[in-house]
Amino acid sequence: MKKVALFVFNGDPACFIHVLLNGLDMKAKGMDGRIVVEGAATALLPELAKPENPLHQLWEKAKSQGIVEGVCKGCAHKMGTAAEAVNQDIALLEDMSGHPSMSRYIEAGFEVVSF
After folding, report:
1. Percent composition of the chain: helix, strand, coil (DSSP 3-state, to 5)
2. Would you write out the chain's pLDDT as a tens digit for each of its 115 residues?
3. Which of 5, 39, 41, 49 has its CA 20 to 30 A from that of 86?
4. pTM
């Protein structure tokens, strides 16, 4: 099975939609795709929770399909969205000095793609 970890740093919704679409497409095609929300993208969490947000349905679908691996704990704290991650029941990833480690995914056989 092809395994891909999509690390999204970019907080631009026009970029974030492509991460969601690709993650869902991978899942639909039987791949193990995981989304890790990093950097400025962590600031999007409160907006993604709003039903009127154009990305809300895709975000909820990605979460319900289990492809949202988590959110960078350090960046979420910096952006003031750590509580929102917890509220949305999204894991705060911190295995590399408070940030998610790409090497953990590489060691587990994932290809890492960053946005």
Report:
1. 45, 20, 30
2. 899 999 999 999 999 999 999 999 999 999 999 999 999 999 999 999 999 999 999 999 999 999 999 999 999 999 999 999 999 999 999 999 999 999 999 999 999 999 9
3. 5
4. 0.96
